[in-house]
Design brief:
- With 316 residues, the chain is mainly beta.
- It is built from three helices and 23 strands.
Length: 316
Amino acid sequence: MKSVRNIIFSCVAFLFMSAPFTRVYAIETIVSASNNSCYKEVFRKKTGNTTWVVSTCERTGQSWNASDNETFWVRFDDGRTGTKEMHIVQPDADGISNINYSLVAPLTLVVDLQSERGGTAFFIHPVSGKRTMASQKFDYRSDDETGLSVKQNGDVVYATTKLDNVEFSIDSAGNLHARRKNEIDADRNAPPTECEKNEKTKDGTKNSYKITLGKSSEGIFSIVYSGSSISGLEGGAYFCDLKIFKSDKNVKFSKSGNSTIVTFGDDRKSIITVDEINRGFTTTFDNIDQSFYCGAGAQIPVKMIATSNNKCLVQF
């Protein structure tokens, strides 16, 4: 029968079997590394009131798949909030050639297990209000010329190699959230779905115009326009509100090339045309009942143009 410790090893190791980056959960019930002669301290770093300590223990033939494991006991001591501990297990199936420990920020530790063609890195961060820590496991690819480069800017950690790129964002509690390069690039390169412009006239009136497109893989399914004109004088605030959804009654969405044409109203004579070109879009409003959608001092423009460099132009 397996011992309690071997059962715990088996449960933790199971977390690492598939995804390229995996959330690692701390276990609070394991006996401290200081009480086990297997563990040897390999890293200690003090920064201000905090101290990081990593101890390792190589266990052979005692894991869920009877292969060699690399096990780590990570301890974070904070003079103000106390001690947090974390125990992780990494199956050594591919062979580890080197292990590197580094702090990219006072509260972010990286344990980098390097192999010939890449490796596995653990990004560890204390979680506020708990005795545990959050971690993400990142399996990365590399070659003989380059390894893993890690840097942190504010609450984002950037981990890159010649062949890989991932971002870890740190939320207010200290948890880590990961995104691969293709997800990052998709967000950065996606055409805009909003156009917003704010301006102030010579007499001090503040005007704002904003249009938002709802989009899916099948195209545009909603158009929402909001605008305002605020003079600062009593009774000098006027607003526009126009919301069109594909599911609405008396609304028709049609597609022609890169253009989406929306007709609406009781007689469907009001028309909004969205032309998607040059990684931006132009929205043209035609025959819109301004008095129905806007207060007396506000109006819907004739055109709103969202450019590829995130500028918004408004034409009346």
